[in-house]
Design goal:
This protein is 51% helix and 7% strand. The chain is of the alpha/beta class. The chain has one domain: HUPs (Rossmann fold, 3-Layer(aba) Sandwich), CATH 3.40.50. Helix 3 links the parallel strand 2 and strand 3. Helix 2 runs parallel beside helix 3.
Length: 245
């Protein structure tokens, strides 16, 4: 698994003509795994990890710095909190995701700034479990050039993390998108990753479900309702084009 992903990333770099990789380091297991894989694929000198706190928990920043130190990779920390607060001030008042989703979209803006500056690829850190149910921000953490672990379920990411020597406290840490204080992925999704992975795998393999029907139906609704997030912009195609006669 590790070798296949590393070779794939190398091929993507060669195909695109990019000189290296930039990624966001959040302090979670997904970004830690991707950073370790990217280091092997691009080399330490051609990898830049950005830590971009925005009203973030101090532990997340501490964990991200710990991962960067453990992997011995280049890292830059830029606090986006003042920029976020200024943006909130000039925008009409809103609540919920309209406000919270500004954070991952600001982070992706910064990642692409460095990608353009350095001729790097932006490397996403999302996994298959999140991708299938749409648990990512459109044009935020979902807007990347490559997605190395996009075909790995959360459980598989954790297995790979142990193989890569990612610290246990990072692997066991409750996953969180960090959109607001106290948020966790599983609480927001209303299902554990183990349950989610099981339902998705059985759906993919067209096997009989073992989970309760209400949870199976919930996952099916999440997959169906997030289809637009996995596609490009919808285009209105005009058959035959314009008549210029």
């Amino acid at each position: 698994m590790k070798r296949k992903i590393v070779l794939w990333v190398k091929d993507e770099l060669k195909r695109s003509g990019a000189k290296g990789i930039v990624l966001g380091l959040s302090g979670g297991v997904d970004s830690a795994v991707v950073a370790a894989l990217a280091k092997e694929a691009a080399g330490r000198k051609n990898l830049l990890a950005l830590i971009l706190p925005c009203h973030s928990h101090s532990r997340d920043v501490k964990d991200a710095l710990m991962v960067a130190k453990r992997l011995k990779i280049k890292v830059r920390q830029l606090d986006l909190t003042p920029l976020y607060e200024q943006l909130i001030k000039i925008l009409p008042k809103a609540k919920g995701l309209a406000v919270y989703n500004l954070k991952p979209r600001l982070r992706m803006t910064v990642l692409y700034y460095f990608a353009n500056k350095l001729n790097y690829l932006v490397c996403g850190t999302g996994n298959k479990s999140e991708f299938l149910v749409g648990y990512f921000t459109k044009h935020g953490d979902g807007a990347t050039d490559i997605l190395p672990i996009g075909d790995l379920f959360k459980k598989e990411v954790r297995v790979l993390a142990r193989e890569l020597g990612i610290p246990k406290e990072i692997i066991d840490k409750p996953p969180s998108a960090g959109l607001w204080a106290g948020q966790t992925d599983e609480n927001e999704l209303g299902i554990t990753y183990d349950e989610l992975d099981g339902i998705l795998k059985r759906t993919e393999g067209k096997r009989r479900q073992s989970a309760p029907p209400d949870k199976v139906n919930k996952v099916k609704r999440l997959v169906k309702g997030s289809e637009h997030k996995r596609q490009g912009p919808r285009i209105c195609y005009i058959e035959g084009g314009f008549n210029h006669g």
